[in-house]
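Q: Can someone sanity-check these two? First one:
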Amino acid sequence: MTSAVRSSRPMMVAGGAVLLLALGLVALMLVRPSSSAGSAAPAAAPSDTSVDVGFARDMSIHHQQAVEMSFIVRDRTSDVAVRRLAYDIINTQANQRGMMLGWLEMWGRAKSSSAPPMEWMGHTVMPKGDGSLMPGMATDTELDALRVAKGKDAEVLFLKLMTAHHRAGAEMAQAAAAAAGTDEIRNLAAGMVRGQQSEIALMADMLKERGSTA
């Protein structure tokens, strides 16, 4: 083997190493673009007194009671239509509640507050007591009555309580859809308005079928 051949081997090895290093740097640049590329900074979290945070807190509480009432009536009647409505409310509102609590966590905001309910709407609501914290919410006495009712009586009481619950919830959602600062809350609230108004109409028909009104 000549000296020229022997000397070419380390040069080939060194050249290959340089090529691999260059390819690695290019790949790194593609995966991790430099800060000069103009990447947008994350949006600031809504303030603790914002519509977004206030709505997420209050509606999470409001939704929780709707889920609770739906679980109660599910076990108090065998009516297919009422049970289907209860399941829909459980699934929809439990999912929405999870989203709102998740956003509060992401924003670094507490999930509860000492501020009066619905203060974010620009007015203070005085709870009517007996466990009813906000407009539309059933009292503890009403929930106890639902727990012992059966059949048609349970259906009618549930539909009346849930209609009042939805009406107040839709009003809250309309306010948030109009005044919230984040797309997340605006879009979710607008969807709540549509969904709850549709269920209010459905429950009016169901009550009429049972010889009652809201």
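And here is the second, same format, sequence then tokens:
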Amino acid sequence: MRRTRIAGAVLLAGTVTGLAAGPAQGQEYRYWSFWDSKGGSWTYATQGPATLRPADGAVEGFRFTVGADSAAAGKPRTAAGFDAICRDTPAKDGRKRIGIVLDFGTAADAPGGERPPKARSECAQVSEDASAGEALAAVARPLRYDANALLCAIAGYPKAGCAEAVNGSKGAGASAAPSAGAAGDRDGANGGGDGSGDGGPSAGLLGGVAAVVLLGAAAVWQARRRRG
């Protein structure tokens, strides 16, 4: 009986973990992704613009894309060249210059009834301790957020919606938005936090539940061992 209960708890933990991983596979979302410039090429961000504080001369990219994860996300199609972006913005003491590349995606990625604006690059001149999100806000207003501070629109695009699931992709109808690299946080975007949308449990939350179940199973085993 003791072994049966412990095994049942472990199986439940495995089921919860499976739920955390399952919906992300094949389900695509329409969202703003965030990219760092590394050696002139784009790398999917590992932290969000709200926490990333780039040095003078950095270039940060935002791409409106459709994808299930970082491997499927479209990169900005504009070159990450700081000199070309900020050549007309002279340096100032106590300020730094950050190149911001905005790629509004393709017509196929656009929500119904909307047409993506042309890609553009801006040079944000901000305080030395400013985050990448603050640099974005300096050059790409209006920004739009949802109730969870997820960044939904840059420069007013798109007009509606926020990291919604794309109909027709595998698992459509799930409500958890992409987490890694998805734009979020009030200062700009989230590149590594929990980017779950309204109404859907995040992978982090479900993984935490699985951990609690496993700890509970271990505690039951220890208690029964002492009694025995």
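A (reply): Looked at the second one. The chain has four helices and seven strands. The first strand starts at residue 29 and ends at 38.
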